[in-house]
Amino acid sequence: MNRKTGAPSRGSALALAMLASTLASCGAGGQTMNGTYTIVLPEGTATLSLAVLPSGTVSGWMRSVDGTLFEATGLEVVDDEGDVTVEGTLSGAMNADFSLYEEDDPEFGLLLTPHDASGNPVLAEAVVFAAVRSSLTSSPMTGNGPLAGGATRPSPPPEAGSPAAGPADARLVGLWSTQTVMNSEVGSVATQMFMELTSDGVMRDLGSRAIGSIGDGGIDTGLEGGGEQAVWHTQDDLLMVGYPGGPSVPLARFGFSEGRLVLRYLQDGSIQIWSRVR
Question: What is the pTM of this model?
């Protein structure tokens, strides 16, 4: 399968949050990225081992050529055509985003995008390596060498809604909206989406409204959709989401700019800016 270069369409932040709990059943033919991979680097070979949980959460490790270990976390993502990738983060002395995608099993591609000192991906330094899946099973992390940067060995993800899930950053609490505009030769449509993050860790999709003009006619759908909810909390600068009683997974890195909430989605690196309604 060929890697898709276009960013997938996004209905709402909550829709992506819910994605983590349904990915396992959406893959083509039960396809999964679970396994151990050999990565070809200029100076030698590295190893990446990933375990995919039923929720689509991915955890594992990467061992560099010199034996240094990095923790790997992320999500298994299925696009509209059934192509499967893993979108995640490597943590250690070097922090980086990674995307593992299939070319023609057992051949894969691994896109690494290093972070700068502030934790932001440096797109200009992104590089792609060839990877070969050597096993369909993940391997446990052994003690042959320290984890980079003093990082700890991976542990099971905390359960969403449980005390182990951690606190919610109070700055995210509130009702938020974001707007996207689509222009074409026949008109333009602006879609406004609404999301609520409560102080007790509930994330609600409040629906969306489309307003615009197509040809000689106008469009105003009114507020429609919504009603679904998830559980959320924060971990450093990560927005973590999941269903109550299920594993929480990292959805996006968050920050603030002039009072607005900026979400950088780990799935594809895209950015949404949310304005506070109240």
Answer: 0.46
